[in-house]
């Protein structure tokens, strides 16, 4: 469904171009959850933005292609890309605090994609939005519909973001560190929600995270990135059980376990 | 987000502004006397129950003239804001959002307009177009564009980098939609206080131009004209000058406080931004 081939992106803000992604390739099948793991600055987000066609002006795509249903998105017009965004591919990101418009009511923001991509009437849109908010497990959608983002907690805002990203039932949702800004219990709930959506709506999820534990729980397949280069990719089990590359092994050993916690405690004493 | 301190500026300014607006609106429909009717016997009559604010050198009722005069002033000020604020907001939105060469060109034109003293620029306009109510509106409107454009532009520049704009783009919203549906509502609080200040400046500019005789032309009543006419009789009939002057002061004070209060009120908006 989605295929990225030999994608290389450089930034031209400094005199010496900065390669943020080099020779990156991946494929994604309908309905799967693919994890992209890497430390910050490894090019995960840049890859996602390139996919959406929303790179900064200073970024340049040096080579490669992004094939969506066999069509190269890098050669698509702005118009074509716009009809894809929010409709076929949608994206949510890290900061639910700032990614909602502070002065528009929540319901209106969930409906936004419907307003842009369909010619549904007002009532129909509202019905669909409420349905979606319910699917995102928001309590009391009817009441929330008229509320403003500052009246909601972080977890609820992320659910609103998810509802607005999924309202048109896209084939792929890119989730760029969706749980990083949330506390652990809410994090678990959001992950469960993503899993449920994947199962029920067959939405493929491209899950970008630096949290290996989360990726292991959620994803079918994962891809490890380091400084713009794909280090290793494969089935989640084999990746975690028998990593082939040194970097993957190092990354895995950074996950705190019971032993590391004990070791740290000893150090403090 | 508890705010114990009450926003007195907003309350007082709002009341005063509302009062003055009510005053002007009444003036559009009803005046106790015909504002242009002269009467010999009541020439220079002092304030009384019959003539609340007294009468001027033609025996015209000052209360009626203040009512219609402030109506004229209000009309000129509002039209000025509509022209200046409307074009300024559009220009600021486009330049701030897109940036680049369009921004450079429009903002340099803006600087050029803003670098003239406004009264001088107004004089230039009037000397080309000729005096009169509508030409004053046009001149003031053009003069007011730069200040609005600059305020809106800076707001757009700071807003366009925010995440909610990014998420709107991710939903496939077009640039125009992002500008006017997503960003503009965030600019409204700033724009409102700019409108209140702009309204004040427009009132003062209109009064000033009419005082100089290049604004509203007789027989139309205007606060500025009334002040100019009455200065000859200032010691003999001070009420001719006091009441129009007082009206201007209250009007400007009301909207000044209102704008101040709106700016303070923005604190509560920005804390959840």
Automatic annotation (TrEMBL), chain A:
Gene3D superfamilies: P-loop containing nucleotide triphosphate hydrolases. It is a peripheral membrane protein. It is found in: Cell membrane. InterPro entries: AAA+_ATPase, ABC_Ni/Peptide_Import, ABC_transporter-like_ATP-bd, ABC_transporter-like_CS, P-loop_NTPase. Keywords: ATP-binding, Cell inner membrane, Cell membrane, Membrane, Nucleotide-binding, Translocase, Transport. GO terms for molecular function: ATP binding; ATP hydrolysis activity. It comes from the Bacteria. The keyword Translocase applies. Transmembrane segments: none annotated. SUPFAM superfamilies: P-loop containing nucleoside triphosphate hydrolases. GO terms for cellular component: plasma membrane. Residues 4-252 form the ABC transporter domain. PANTHER family: ATPASE AAA-TYPE CORE DOMAIN-CONTAINING PROTEIN, OLIGOPEPTIDE TRANSPORT ATP-BINDING PROTEIN APPD. This is Peptide/nickel transport system ATP-binding protein. It comes from Lactonifactor longoviformis DSM 17459.
From TrEMBL, chain B:
Pfam families: BPD_transp_1. InterPro entries: BP-dependent_transpt_permease, MetI-like, MetI-like_sf. Keywords: Cell membrane, Membrane, Transmembrane, Transmembrane helix, Transport. It comes from the Bacteria. It is a multi-pass membrane protein. Residues 70-259 form the ABC transmembrane type-1 domain. The keyword DNA-binding does not apply. Coiled coil: none annotated. PROSITE patterns: ABC_TM1. The keyword Cell membrane applies. The chain crosses the membrane at residues 7-30, 74-100, 112-130, 136-157, 178-199, 236-258. Belongs to the binding-protein-dependent transport system permease family. This is Peptide/nickel transport system permease protein. It comes from Lactonifactor longoviformis DSM 17459. The lineage of its organism: Bacteria, Bacillati, Bacillota, Clostridia, Eubacteriales.
